[in-house]
Amino acid sequence: EEEEDSSPIISRFQKYLQINTAHPKPLYQEAADFILSEASSLSLDSQTLEFVPGKPLLLLKWPGSDPSLPSILLNSHTDVVPAEHDKWAHHPFSAHVDPSGKIYARGSQDMKCVGLQYLEAIRRLKASGFKPTRTVYLSFVPDEEIGGHDGAEKFAESDVFKALNVGIVLDEGLASPSEHYRAFYAERCPWWLIIKATGAPGHGAKLYDNTAMENILKSIESVRRFRASQFDLVKAGLKAEGEVVSVNMAFLKAGTPSPTGFVMNLQPSEAEAGFDIRVPPTADQESLEKRIAEEWAPSSRNMTFRFKQKVSVLDKSGRPVLTATDSSNPWWALLEEAVKKANGKLGKPEIFPASTDARYFRLQGLPAIGFSPMANTPILLHDHNEFLNKDEYLKGIKIYESIIKSYSSYAEHVPAGLRDEL
Ligand code: MET
Ligand SMILES: [Zn+2]
Ligand SMILES: [Zn+2]
Question: Which residues does the entry assign to the active site, renumbered to this chain (predicted)?
Fold first, then answer.
């Protein structure tokens, strides 16, 4: 097969990466303009939805020949997390390509790569004369990194979405340091917990019981024991990262401020600690809640707690939110075959250790698979010097070409009761 010149493909990727869509002030309109111009160059229908003003969600459409069949939705988010510019080897919004082909940019892995790879794959399919049977939709959504409430959540619950008659959703996954791509059928749920201790203030020289600091330290010790027990399961190879409960302290807030720092000889009457907890969909949610109330923030120790965010691991019917990976879900086998056809290797289905917008689609009863085709790549999302090698990026386009071809040609009827068999 004749290899085309890859430079325009890489330039388009760089152009998207150079748009600073980092929180707290993502340049959503610039990203939207860029995607819209790409869509028009590909003759895709486009629609801009604004569930919240200033937060555009782009919906592109490649019509299939049989609109009665449920459609394919390829989702990606346009926002990225902030970057500490001075700690990067290359400016995070320069999309610098080094001599070995590494493209450095915030969003190069998470997940501007995926959004553009979908489009590049469609460009190749169109050029080859391919015509989809099922309609293919692409959504470019805002705000994933801050919870997706004004983006994918509103979209998935909207009438516009219902009218798309989506049958399968693809969303983001993770890079893989090995040659095997990773695919995710579920994800852990974020619980952002804040515990607060109170106690009588007193002289810094006095030893007495029930101070706020003592109370919170006891809780922190208890949290750390639990954290270690979960981490040990991973270290011993008994559980995967997505199968245990992770707990990491996000902040500690205590002390009596003074103009020169903190008052040293006064024991504070309040102390707070915040934790990012991630709960697998199959975890015993009740027992964790009990642990928090009884061990981490017991009222007997003058403690209270609240959640800044608490996503339930169960849907409205009390079932864990996950996508089937067995024969009841033909999309999984189709993904495996399509990756293989494009000379890729796929690892075993996993639970995504962090959170993505895929949960909003799963909550609608739809199968959703997390997949970002990046093999032989260190996991650098949210890290300094996030990069993707251009050869991996180009390989990923061919992987999507194969997947989109296979998904959109699949003419079998998928039973409507798929969700009930999970
Ligand atoms: C739950 S909002 C944050 C979303 C982000 N993707 C994360 O996993 O941290
Ligand atoms: Zn992401
Ligand atoms: Zn992210």
Answer: 79, 144 (proton acceptor)
The domains of the chain, with CATH numbers, are 7-187+320-421 (3.40.630.10), 193-279+283-310 (3.30.70.360)
Written as six digits, the tokens of 184 are 């995710």
* CA separation for the pair 128, 151 (Å, rounded): 34
- Residue with structure tokens 């799963």? 362
Residue 397 structure tokens: 């386009």
pLDDT digits (tens, 9 = 90+) for 215-266: 999 999 999 999 999 999 999 999 999 999 999 999 999 999 999 999 999 9
Give kind and range of the element (H or E) at residue 15: helix 7-17
What is the tally of helices (H) and strands (E) in the chain?
10, 21
Helices (H), 192-324: 212-235, 285-291
pLDDT at 421: 44
**ipTM tops 0.85:** yes
What 8-state DSSP symbol labels residue 214?
Answer: H
pTM, two decimal places: 0.93
> What is the atom index within ligand 1 of the atom nearest the CA of 110?
6
Q: Which residues line ligand 1 (CB under 6 A)?
A: 144-145, 147, 190, 354-356
The rounded distance, in Å, linking the Cα atoms of 384 and 371 is: 22
In 3D, which of 7, 133, 76, 92 has the Cα closest to residue 412?
133
Ligand 1: distance of its center to the CA of 73 in Å?
A: 21
Asked whether 135 and 71 are in contact (CB, 8 A), the reply is yes
Q: Phi and psi dihedrals of 155, rounded to 5? A: -60, -50
132 contacts: CB under 8 Å, gap ≥ 6:
62, 63, 64, 65, 125, 404, 408, 409
